Amino acid sequence: YDHQQEAGRQRCCPPPNKLHILDENTKAGVCCPAGQYYATNPQGGRCCANGHHTVSQPGKCTPRACAGPCTLSPVCGDERTNGLNYGSCYVMTFPDGKQLGRRRDDWNYEKDGYIQDIPFKVCRTATDCSKYGAVAPDGSFYLEDQLGGIRDAKGSKGWNNAHNGNHLSMTSNPTQAGQFQGKTSCANGECAIQLFGGPDGGGLTYACPMQNPGITFVSLSCLLFRLFGS
User: Fold this and answer.
1) Nearest-angstrom CA–CA distance, 75 and 224
2) Residue 187 and residue 127 in one domain
3) 96 & 202 share domain
4) Of the candidates 19, 46, 22, 52, which has an alpha carbon nearest to the alpha carbon of residue 34?
5) CB 134 within 8 A of CB 152
6) Strand pairing partners for 90?
7) Residue 108 and residue 194 share a domain
8) Fewer CB atoms < 10 Å away: N or C end of the chain?
9) How many domains would you assign to the chain?
10) pLDDT digit string (tens) for 94-133?
């Protein structure tokens, strides 16, 4: 019921208002207009626009702001490291700024795929993704897909599967995770990395001339990526 009308023990809000519970034990709450929610601070609260405001002082709704900007820095290697760090996560992009995403089928990776902003964690093995310092120029690593299958109710993570030389795809089986190596390079005057893998250690290339091509391995290919991490 609305605690502001407790004397009348009103248990329903008149439409189109909705009840926002404040106390789960007594089920006391506040009626707010549709599309709003009850925002509080230690001095009180009020109904504010849904999802976009919070109460900074009694009786006043103000825009909700992030604590600070979320920025990702490009990976840049040198003679001691390829720029990656074990245990860290990165978003993979192409030199034109488009991301390595996944298709609507949820498994195959492609340029500018439907599923975007996938964090890939750099792991020493398919069972060890702990923090372990920088990856050496000739070091190997595995890429754990932190998003995992969007249709997986358990939210299980996946692996970038490059072990069989076919198109890059995600697998939930760690034994099928692909092993990569990364070579420092540059693209359009900016830091980049060339990835190698597959059964013959080949480079990555576009699988076919499409708007959103899949990615596969070719021995002499040199497709470059720009990786960004925090």
Assistant:
1) 12
2) yes
3) yes
4) 19
5) no
6) 120
7) yes
8) C
9) 2
10) 888 899 999 877 788 989 988 889 999 999 999 999 998 9
